[in-house]
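Human: You know discrete backbone vocabularies at least as well as I do. Show me how you would write down a chain together with its backbone fold. No explanation is needed for now; the record alone will do.

Assistant:
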Amino acid sequence: MVLYKVSVIIPTYNRYYSLVRSLKSLLKSKIPPNEIIVVDDGSSDKRIKKIPERFPTVRLIRNRPPYGPQYARNRGLKVAKSPLIAF
């Protein structure tokens, strides 16, 4: 079986509970990604700060002010280390 290195980039905005469910699912997968990058696009929900505490392997990047989903995806792409990307 060939395993590929994959970076998962999740742009988010005021979706804390959906984000937590997504992260739990990713981390439970049979073959988890090499890295998970969450790009918060200026959420007004302060709970996003809890992500690094709850999920220490997840990298959180925060935009201020919000620039839109395309900017968040591109910002995640700039820091991703794996050759394959999943959004």
Q: What stands out?
A: The domain at 6-86 is CATH 3.90.550.10 (Spore Coat Polysaccharide Biosynthesis Protein SpsA; Chain A). The CA atoms of residues 6 and 34 lie 6 Å apart.
